[in-house]
Amino acid sequence: QYTAQSAWMQYLARAKTIFNLLCMSLKRTLSVLEIVMIVGLAAVPLLATFPYRLNIFLSWEGAYRLYLGQTPYKDFGMPVGYMYWVIPAIFFKIFGPAMITLVKAQVFINILAGLSFRSILKSLDVQPGIRFTSVLLFCFSYSFFNYWPWYNHTVIVYELIALAFLMKYFFSPRQKFYNLIAAAVFICFSFFTKQDGGGLALLVCVALLAYEAFTEKRWRGTLIFAGSVLIVGTLMVLPFLNYNFGYWFNHGQAPHSSRISMGDLFSDFFNHSQWLKFYLIVIALLLIAKLKDGWKNFILNKRDAIFTLLTLGILVEAIIFQVTSYVPVDNNIFFHSFAIAFILSVASTFLPINFNSWKLVIVCGAGILLWWSDVYYKFFERFISKPKTYATYSYNGRQYANEVNRNTYMIAMDTTDIPVSQWRVPNLRSFKKVLLPNPTVDGIERLMQLDIIKQKKDIAVLNMTELTPLAAEIPFKLETGSHYPLWYHKGVSMFDKETRMFCDRINKKHYDLVLFEYIPFLNNFYPFEVRDCLQKNYRKIDSFVAPRKPSTHAWVEVYIK
Q1: What 3-state DSSP class applies to 281?
Q2: How confident is the model over 532-544, as pLDDT tens digits?
Q3: Quick check: pTM over 0.85?
Q4: Cα–Cα distance between 59 and 561 in angstroms, integer?
């Protein structure tokens, strides 16, 4: 009997050892999988060919000007900060000024975003299973479909890097102050990408440092961070003060208009924001359960308190950001990953569930993939469900499907849309691997065959269109000056003074060639006044479809003297 018991004890000991090894293997494996997933999903766009994206002309224009050696605010003015274009400009230097280079730059930006988010969760000691689930959610909900650079995304990426350094400062064995300085640098990068997101990021950091100062009675960290922000911010502004910096950057002051409105905030929050309201309710319920031992114990638990403050700060930031940065509509969805990481972490203290098991990791991972299936299902849908064709009848000169169902009950009023199947890649280096509508490519080819361009003489060109890479293809010299706007969206990046300047130049026949994009359903996206001046003083020799999707109810017009 004694021998049998000893054998069973040995078996149990071995089983325990194997179990511990498996747990250790789980942690290591998930850690490796997180990095592979962040890098792998970010790199997927490198394998694809892309339709031209709305507004991507702006990413090209700023990066191309920096690539040429131009100086922000001295050679061009803009109502946002210049840090947005720094990474794309560096990639232009490495890979050349092509549209596909912007995709390569965004791959790098997405990797930085994923690694920063992972670092934040590691510093907060989030369980490996929950951390893996949250990183997976982050990749699919915020990074995977962002394959073009955009300032409303880059501003948050700089914030994530700053928060990663700040968490390192809070939870490293020795609170090394260089982490605070690094956090301050990237907060400034965030602010000088876009004021609203960067300002909100700064407030989140200040709230977290204020908590530390209040609970630990130490203000040194807050003072170091504040001093670093002041010094770095000053260094980033001083070189441009002589170049009309105040005129361009004073967003919310004349001639700019404010984007913040309490009415809009309440309207967006109470009429929409379903996920934000849901998360706030769930977090409130979990905090009530968490606070059963008293507020004091919770507040003095540094890790729990900072995780709570950070999550609530991100949710509040998302509520405001969706109003101040409203294009595109999903700018603020970075909040999902923080909310889920927090909810699962707190819930795990109450539920008899081991999130650090392969079974739970697989279930949670499958749940994330099911939840965000719309991100990737579109790539498989063409192979799974073939588009159905219907018999048609004619009425008033138009063809309609004879069968009425969910696909045919609405009659499309916009008949200008061009399916992507009728798009192709222009034979121009700057547009490599980028699809444009066939009529747009035809128009570009006609443009490139104009005598004024084929003569290869220096010509004065005004390009008020989304086809900004033509500057490198024609080529022509971009106009410069502290008075000159980086792009031509009236009320956003140029104002009445700039509109009068362009009309005056057109009246004086300053330009040899003018390209103007006429978009009648957008309010002064390119100023209508400039088009009126063109029609009075120049001759329109061509017009072709602009590269807009879904509607192409917009045209690129070609004018010469």
Answers
A1: helix
A2: 999 999 999 999 9
A3: yes
A4: 30
